[in-house]
């Protein structure tokens, strides 16, 4: 389906067959991401691996990412971080259980992810960063809000910037960039000045090592219209699975469909060249957390609530989350 979002022609892909066309058959022609204003500002003009134009520079970054930063061996080496953090989460849930206080599970999982990511990336817990917990999380939330914000320039490239200045989006974006820039600088300085053993190395240490060996790479630009793979819409297609809105995980039990990007009816991590390179890390974290949460407690709804009161409505955003916390 071809639609026009502002002045941008956009192809919406809503079936597994056309997702296969885009993510496999024509993968190489379709794997640059749109140059959105918020993304450009927060990624030092699209230099981040997730947003850089497809080409030699991306290929080189991706190789380092997959082979060095998120290889199976590296993911395994951070197992102790996952175990400690899941352990702390289980302990805090156990304390709530003891006092029969309802648990906000959305918040628990959010904190768990933030804690693990922070320790793996920077080598220390959020509370130990110079930014106090609140302001670090505020900074991240604001950056995410900026990445998913509606910018008129993205849909009306010629004049949208005027609207963005009036709405205040432009200055909010610049402030968010400045905060992140100061934070990165501090983290880099700290890591440059630290002496660590090989086992103590975190992601920033590895990246700094790589930067030393880096050579400059050129990359090409070509772009026609945007293509949006509607993985959410594909997941809700009734011809592909019965009662798609119902939570029936057993539906996948006797089928060969997996989530790794080989089956275009289930694409949580995308597929093709730009598919998610953090999949191993994500699955290691999710499996451990979920198994422990389910194994350690008998879950029930807070007093006075029935199953029908639980809202499964999705909130908007870059990462899909429950609109009403669980
Ligand atoms: C449940 C957790 C996660 C989900 C559902 C997820 C999903 C995705 C999706 C759908 C994409 C876009 C794929 C495409 O365009 O075809 C992506 C890209 C990406 N993800 Fe993830 N992801 C997760 C966790 C992670 C983690 C833990 C990391 C790293 C630590 C990570 C790093 C990235 C990067 C760098 C890209 C951009 C790759 C590129 O453009 O070459 N993700 N992810």
UniProtKB/TrEMBL annotation:
GO terms for molecular function: heme binding; iron ion binding; monooxygenase activity; oxidoreductase activity, acting on paired donors, with incorporation or reduction of molecular oxygen. InterPro entries: Cyt_P450, Cyt_P450_CS, Cyt_P450_sf. Keywords: Heme, Iron, Metal-binding, Monooxygenase, Oxidoreductase. It comes from the Eukaryota. Its cofactor is heme. Pfam families: p450. Belongs to the cytochrome P450 family. PANTHER family: CYTOCHROME P450 71A9-LIKE ISOFORM X1 (PTHR47955:SF19), CYTOCHROME P450 FAMILY 71 PROTEIN (PTHR47955). This is Cytochrome P450.
